[in-house]
């Protein structure tokens, strides 16, 4: 999992703190998925390939591909 997390400002992006991605237990992530900084993915979620995840994913969620979850 890769995410941009280099501080170029005062630690905030649009009012959110810059953090790495927090991924819950038993999460399946497809090839080419991109996460924005600070996103949290709930347990037992499935993220299909080529998705762009911009906001938190609740537990037990299946995100279809290609999809921009914001």
Question: Mind explaining what this structure looks like?
Answer:
The protein has 70 residues and is mostly beta strands. 0% of the residues lie in helices and 29% in strands. It has strands at 12-13, 16-17, 22-23, 28-29, 34-35, 40-41, 46-47, 52-53, 62-63, 68-69. The strands form four sheets. Strands 4-7-9 form a three-stranded parallel beta sheet, with no helix packed on it. Strands 5-8-10 form a three-stranded parallel beta sheet, with no helix packed on it. A two-stranded antiparallel ribbon has the order 1-2. The mean pLDDT is 78.
**Gross morphology:** globular
**Oligomeric nature of the chains:** single chain
* SSE sequence, one letter per element: EEEEEEEEEE
- The low-confidence parts are none
Share of helix, binned: under 10%
**Structural class determined from secondary elements:** mainly beta
* Biggest sheet details: 3 strands, parallel
What distance separates the N and C termini? 18 Å
Radius of gyration: 12 Å
* Average pLDDT, all residues: 78
Approximately what portion of the residues adopt beta-strand conformation? 25-35%
Strand ordering within the main sheet: 4-7-9
The helix tally amounts to 0
Number of strands: 10
């Amino acid at each position: 999992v890769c995410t941009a997390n280099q501080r170029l400002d005062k630690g905030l992006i649009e009012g959110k703190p810059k953090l790495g991605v927090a991924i819950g237990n038993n999460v399946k992530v497809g090839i080419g998925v991109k996460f924005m900084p600070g996103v949290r993915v709930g347990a037992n979620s499935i993220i299909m390939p080529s998705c762009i995840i911009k906001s938190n994913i609740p537990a037990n969620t299946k995100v279809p591909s290609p999809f921009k979850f914001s």
